Each structure stands twice: as C-alpha cells, then as structure tokens.
Amino acid sequence: SLVLRFCKDTFSDSQPPTIQASFLDKPMTVGDKRVNLAIWDTAGQERFHALGPIYYRDADGAMLVYDITSHESFVKVRTWVRELRSIVGNNISIVIAGNKVDLKSRRAVNEDEALEYAKTVGATHIYTSAKANIGLDEVFTELASSECKIMHLSNIRPLSQPSR
Questions:
Q1: Alpha carbon 137 to chain centroid distance?
Q2: Are 92 and 57 in contact (CB under 8 A)?
C-alpha cells in the first residue's frame, strides 16, 4: 500500500498483500540530483520468506515496514534487519516505517521501543499511513537521500538517472 500510494497515488482498503514481489519505479529529486527509485516490494508473509535474499543482494536501500497495531509485525523487522546485514553488509540504507499511524489509538508497538531499536541498528524511523497519505514523501526521500550519501562515500554504483 505504501509503494502504490507513493508511486501511483492510489489507496484501497481492500488492497491484497504483495505476493512474492512487485516492481515499481518513480523519478524524484533529492537535493539537486534527479534520481529514479527502482522499488521492489517484497512479500512479508512467512511463506515467501525464502525469496527475500534474492532481492536483497543488489539493494542499495531498504524500507522495512511494520504495522503499529501489530507487535508481531515489528518483531519481523528485527529478522529482516539481521538478514539484510548478513547478505548486503553495512553499505545499505535502512528506513523503518511504522505504518498505519492513522490507527494510533490501536497502537501495539511502543513508540520508544521502535525509535530505540531503529537507532541501535543505524536506521531512520518514520511513521507513515498509506491510507491517510502521511509520511510517504518523507520516508522515500529519506531512503533516497541516505542511499545517495552511502554511494558517494563508498563509490558504489549510483542510482540510475532517468533519460532526458
């Protein structure tokens, strides 16, 4: 839902979960650079867990999304961070998105716990809501900005530039 809202500005309460993976891209400006975010949305369900590493290998950044109304979904973020670090190493930008902030009255994940965890793994934490269109520009801009900084410092391949 976050990727569809960001890339196509659409939202549906009945949006089915991602099956395996889907790909979308979106051009955007980061500072004075025009970049094209190539976004792989991978399934979070356990039955598709084995597919994750296929997409992690060439990733420059990752947005790990949990539902603030489900502590179990937050626990899965810890697993994904460990997997990312073991496969990609430390040269990957990680942004953790606490989604469904529009349902904060049903919060099941402690705010301090989420923010502290992000800090301990060197990730940025941003609250989002695909439904209410909250924090999406912020979360994707943060991810793209972090990727650009890491690429500049590490001389790893740049984000693809859209043709003019």
A1: 12
A2: no
State pLDDT tens for residues 101-123: 999 999 999 999 999 999 999 99
Residue 117: CA atoms inside 13 Å, Cβ hemisphere, count?
Answer: 24
Residue closest to 104 by CA, chosen among 76, 149, 134, 75: 134
Place of tokens 């909250």: 134
- If one counts every other C-beta atom within 10 angstroms of the C-beta of residue 61, the result is 23
CB contact at 8 A, 121 and 90: no
Task: Check: pTM over 0.70? Answer yes or no.
Answer: yes
Pairing state of beta strands 21-30 and 33-42?
Answer: antiparallel
Contacts with 3 (C-beta within 8 Å, 6 or more apart), sequence order: 22, 24, 39, 41
Phi, psi (rounded to 5 degrees) for 2: -65, -45
pLDDT digits (tens, 9 = 90+) for 49-64: 555 555 566 667 788 9
Distance CA 120, CA 86 (A): 16
User: HSE-up of 52 (CA within 13 Å, CB side)?
Assistant: 23
Out of 26-30, 44-48, 119-123, least confident range: 44-48
